[in-house]
Amino acid sequence: MEETISLKDLLETLKKRFTLILSITLVAAIASGVVSYFFITPIYQASTQILVNQSKNNQTMYTPNEVQTNLQLINTYNVIIKSPAILDKVAEDLHLKLTTVQLNKKITVASEKDSQVINISVQDSDPKMAADIANKIAAVFQSQISTIMKVDNVSILAKANVGDNPSPIKPKKAMNVAIAVVVGLMAGIGIAFLLEYFNNTIKNEQDVEKTLGLPILGTIAHIDDQKIEELRRQRASRMSTRRGETIDS
User: Per the database record, which ranges form the Polysaccharide chain length determinant N-terminal domain (predicted)?
Assistant: First the structure.
């Protein structure tokens, strides 16, 4: 016999395991909130922008070919910014107890689309330190690039600043809790259906028919104790009424 599951069965399973599903969801949300608010170190980000051109050679205007060449060199500049030639100097000037590899992991370098503007972003647990590193990288790059690539026209467009109340970029506490709620809810529902699938107890006449492979000829309705007691009272009341009518007659 092909086993089918109706929507009613699914809803009954969810209703039956509602406490389990709710418990798993709450545990996931609370665990995520505790970890996000008390155990994960907040990370702040500071960014600066620089503009890199080739030497002007006393020209007041750039030709399209020169601009295109500058754009093609942006990827090279991005690599140089994160190279030991720049980062070692930054670590030395700021007295950072970080290796080049460790400092490199804190830095993100990206260029604006079809422009010669480079964004340097630094992430650190200290917002002031993040801004100091970003500004120092821009300054060191500005001073060293002329030696490395004979480029003498680097401008710092915007320095990294620390606001009065800087906000961390991660962790996203509210988002983490929301994700935990969704994951906990899905896990709870999955566990509920899994438990129901492995539950071999006979719950209704369909289970009897499926287990024994025999047709059901009839069923005995279940009447709880409260219902039985109510029927007894009604019967006793009717009998008392009849006795009274018999005596009167």
Answer: 3-94
State how far the Cα of 152 lies from the Cα of 94, in Å rounded to an integer: 24
Residue 58's pLDDT is what? Answer: 46
Residue 60 pLDDT exceeds 60: no
For the chain, the structural domain boundaries read 44-158, 215-248
Q: Which residue has the tokens 């922008």?
A: 49
Q: For residue 54, what pLDDT band results from cuts at 50, 70 and 90?
A: low
In this structure, are residues 46 and 134 in contact, taking their beta carbons and an 8 Å threshold? Answer: yes
- Give mean pLDDT, residues 149-173: 86
| 166 within 8 A of 127, measured Cβ to Cβ | yes
* 90 touches 106 (CB < 8 A): no
DSSP the chain: ------HHHHHHHHHHTHHHHHHHHHHHHHHHHHIIIIISPPBEEEEEEEEEE---TT-SS--HHHHHHHHHHHHHHHHHHTSHHHHHHHHHHTT----HHHHHHTEEEEE-TTSSEEEEEEEESSHHHHHHHHHHHHHHHHHHHHHHH---EEEEEE-----SS---SB--HHHHHHHHHHHHHHHHHHHHHHHHHT--S--SHHHHHHHH-------PPP--HHHHHHHHHHHHHHHHHHHHHHHH-
| 181 HSE (CA, 13 A, CB side) | 7
Using the Cα atoms of residue 84, residue 87, residue 91 and residue 92 in order, give the sign of their dihedral. positive
Q: How many Cβ atoms from other residues are within 10 Å of residue 88's Cβ?
A: 14
44-158 has which CATH code? 3.30.70.1130
Question: Which residue has better confidence, 92 or 76?
Answer: 92
